[in-house]
Amino acid sequence: MEITLENIELVKDRTGCTYAEAKAALEEAEGSVVDAIIAIEEKSNADHDRVDGGSLKDSPLFAKMKEIVEKGNISRIIISKNDKKVVSFPVTVGVIGTVLVPWGAVLGMVAAMGTQCSIDFVDDKGRVIDIDGKVIDVYDKAKKVGNTVKGLIKDNADADKSKEDEPERGLKDDEL
User: Fold this and answer.
1) Cα 37 from Cα 151, distance rounded (Å)
2) How high is the pLDDT of residue 108?
3) For the packed helices 102-114 and 132-165, what is the interaxial angle rounded to 10 degrees?
4) Residue pair 77/88 in contact by the 8 Å Cβ criterion
5) How do the domains of the chain map onto residue ranges?
6) CA–CA distance, 89 with 131 (Å, rounded to integer)
């Protein structure tokens, strides 16, 4: 079958490959446009799953990511009240939840602290790390900054109001 410019452009447009790749695929497919497109797509999919000449699943990056996720699933966040566990979930879930719904994480922390719940982090070796003190410190600092900003805003509003209350001084006819 003859390979025409029209067929090359058709393969190129459908697959996003170069003219040379389209022509080579058509030659291998003996001019069949459909077979050329399929061959290019199969090659593209195979290349997509490879990193640095190897399979993505066999790459050191994938192995490290898998290790981190597994370690994250062992590490847990435990919220308890009066030494009774209220909720426990993997750190990975907490991180994903915080990324997807950051305001939900903030509300959850505020609710936990407001109800005198204890928030503990259990690492992969079973050690408990109490984060209540750290959260309270951050909360206190944020509250202090918020009160400072509130004071500045109030001072500015009061200054603006006092300017509005002053009578406007206009020029009298004899001052002109």
Assistant:
1) 68
2) 82
3) 100
4) yes
5) 5-57, 75-130
6) 15
CA pair distance 142, 146, nearest whole angstrom: 6
pTM here is 0.37
- The fold of the 5-57 domain, in CATH, is Helicase, Ruva Protein; domain 3 (1.10.8)
The 10s digit of each residue's pLDDT in 106-161 is: 888 788 778 888 878 787 777 776 665 665 666 677 778 888 888 888 888 777 77
**Tens digits of residue pLDDT in 90-107:** 877 877 877 788 888 788
Q: CB of 3 within 8 A of CB of 11?
A: no
Q: For the chain, first and last CA: distance in Å?
A: 99
Q: 3-state secondary structure string, the chain?
A: CCCCHHHHHHHHHHHCCCHHHHHHHHHHCCCCHHHHHHHHHHHHHHHHCEECCEEHHHCHHHHHHHHHHHHHHHCEEEEEECCEEEEEEEHHHHHHHHHHCHHHHHHHHHHHHHCCCEEEEECCCCCEEECHHHHHHHHHHHHHHHHHHHHHHHHHHHHHHHHHHCCCCCCCHHHC
> Residue 133 contacts by C-beta under 8 Å, 6 or more apart in sequence?
none
